[in-house]
Amino acid sequence: MLATVALQTRYGQAWILRAAAMLLVLCLFLRPRPDWTWPRALASGLALLPLALSGHAAMEEGRTGLLHALNDMLHCLAAGFWLGSLPVFLLILRRWTEPACRADATRALMRFSTAGHVAVAVLLLSGVVNAVLILSPEGLDIASAYQQWLGLKILLALAMTVLAIMNRYWWVPRIRRQPEIALGPLRRNTVLEVCVGVAILLIVSALGLSAPQ
Q1: Which of 130, 160, 167, 171 stands 20 to 30 A from 53 (CA)?
Q2: Whole-number pLDDT of residue 10
Q3: Separation CA 213–CA 82 (nearest Å)
Q4: What's the angle, vertex CA 199, arms to CA 134 and CA 49, rounded to 5?
């Protein structure tokens, strides 16, 4: 029974691929080598891709199914980069308080903020495409519990975007000139982003198990 589900269903095949990718990630992180940064990042991204094959996209066939799966993969990669980078961002903020690390930490903050622009743009655009692909057969229905939760997810994603924009254009540029003022709000906003991101993941988990009706 388990072998049939694992080998003969798209859901099972997706989780086999994910397990293999996670094993690769584990092996790369258990052998600490500084020159393996990019292989670790690529393997981590690879572990996210099978998630797109086990959601609503797995129920579709043909070009629509392929488009939905590819779009889901982009969505997963962007979300994984954004949410997964936030704890590292907090660690960099802690290192910024050390004078010897300040210059490197400042460069890292700016680079993260720049890369975050791309991740946020891809995340929002792919999220819109996903919503259209999922809801177009059913149409909008404000009485639908699924669509209500989807609307809440969208609102929370927009809230995360606002927090990210505040950090990038208001607090990060001030960290050099007014660190005593900027560090506290920057840290609080980032922690809040993490909390909102976790809430979004919980909603996504529920949506993935629900029919879009």
Answers
A1: 160
A2: 66
A3: 29
A4: 55
